[in-house]
Design a protein that fits this description.
- The chain is α+β, with helices and mostly antiparallel strands and about 160 residues long.
- The protein has 5 helices and 6 strands.
- Helix 1 packs across helix 5 and helix 3 crosses helix 4.
- It is globular.
Length: about 160
């Protein structure tokens, strides 16, 4: 079983901040382990005060739901009561945020954590997350839940 190290989390965060700076954004970045527990969270100068909490909730969602937030959006839209109740469960540490900028971290077919980006637009947060994970060799394809067929990846609808 693989785990996500502090060094790997910091590498992800550094790469995300570099990409965000390239597009003129100050984003907070959170990396959690497979159980949703924080490994590293960083808010750069200029990032809005609430962005670290949003990034952590996005990372938590991607890790514990084992799918990127954008893949969960249609499910959330079709069952809003279920998703609202998820955050009320006794073991839920944070709200479930089915949105862009929430990426499951997967290596060698194994889910090892979650990445949350907050501070840009939804599309910017997602693009930063996708580009960073792809550039560092993490997998971006996940099988859709409840449907038959191939995996869903960036740009594919799930």
């Amino acid at each position: 079983m693989s785990s996500l190290t502090l060094a790997a989390a910091e590498e992800i965060i550094d790469a995300a901040h570099q990409r965000a700076q390239a597009i003129g954004k100050a984003v907070s970045v959170a990396v959690v382990d497979a159980g949703g527990f924080p490994i590293a969270i960083r808010r750069p100068d200029g990032a809005r005060p609430l962005t670290p909490d949003i990034a952590r909730a996005k990372a938590y969602t991607a890790a514990v739901m084992q799918r990127p937030g954008k893949m969960l959006k249609k499910w959330q839209e079709s069952q809003p009561v279920f998703f609202a109740q998820l955050s009320q469960l006794p073991g839920a540490a944070l709200p479930i945020m089915a949105t862009e900028g929430s990426m499951t971290i997967k290596k060698d077919g194994e889910i090892i954590g979650g990445l949350g980006i907050a501070g840009g637009t939804a599309d910017e947060d997602q693009r930063i997350a996708d580009e960073v994970l792809a550039s560092l060799g993490y997998e971006l394809e996940f099988a859709a839940w409840g449907v038959t067929g191939g995996p869903a990846g960036p740009g594919k609808d799930a």
